[in-house]
Write a structure and sequence with these properties.
The protein is mainly beta and 166 residues long. Helices cover 0% and strands 35% of the residues. The chain has 3 domains: 57 residues, Tumor Necrosis Factor Receptor, subunit A, domain 2; 33 residues, no CATH class; 55 residues, Tumor Necrosis Factor Receptor, subunit A, domain 2 (Ribbon).
Length: 166
């Protein structure tokens, strides 16, 4: 078996009794035949509307952004469509395969894809984040704690300390 340099869409070509055998190693190309007489017929680019990320014999259909999703980036032979969500909604997972309402400050997302107010003793000062527990103490002496709310942590207020005359 002899090793030859490969055309652009083939990684390695081995010549042998079966003719030429190859492995397609460039994304955007799928394997048509593992071996054959003509190396150019072993791999082919994905058809329009399809893409491929792994080296296999079929291309995947491009994702379509549906419902609350908005189109962010076109599908190419080497990458799937990128979807986002309409204003007021956030991607529900890393692939953005669904959208959920964006939780505002003073709220947190729930497992059923809705929002709930921060429970007592917690706050959230950012959009679409988990509520955090209030701090339990002030950083300086002679400060008292004023209770926080769903939007803000506790407040530390200076306390007047009576002066001692000697």
């Amino acid at each position: 078996m002899s090793l030859n340099f490969a055309p652009a869409n083939l990684t390695s070509i081995y010549s042998g009794a079966a003719g030429v055998c190859s492995v397609c190693m460039f994304v955007g190309n799928r394997i048509v035949h593992k071996c054959g007489k003509d190396p150019k017929e072993l791999c082919t680019p994905c058809e329009p509307g399809k893409f491929i990320l792994e080296f296999k014999d079929r291309c995947d259909r491009c994702t379509r952004c549906l419902g609350a999703q908005v189109h962010v980036k076109d599908c190419t032979a080497t990458s799937d469509t990128v979807c986002g969500c309409k204003k007021g909604q956030t991607c529900g997972n890393t692939q953005c395969s669904f959208c959920v309402d964006t939780c505002g400050k003073g709220q947190e997302p729930t497992s059923d894809r809705s929002c709930r107010p921060c429970p007592d003793g917690t706050y959230n000062d950012q959009s679409h984040s988990k509520c955090k527990p209030w701090s339990t103490k002030c950083p300086k002496p002679y400060q008292k704690i004023e209770k926080g709310d769903a939007f803000t942590d506790i407040k530390c207020v200076n306390v007047s300390v009576p002066s001692v005359n000697v």
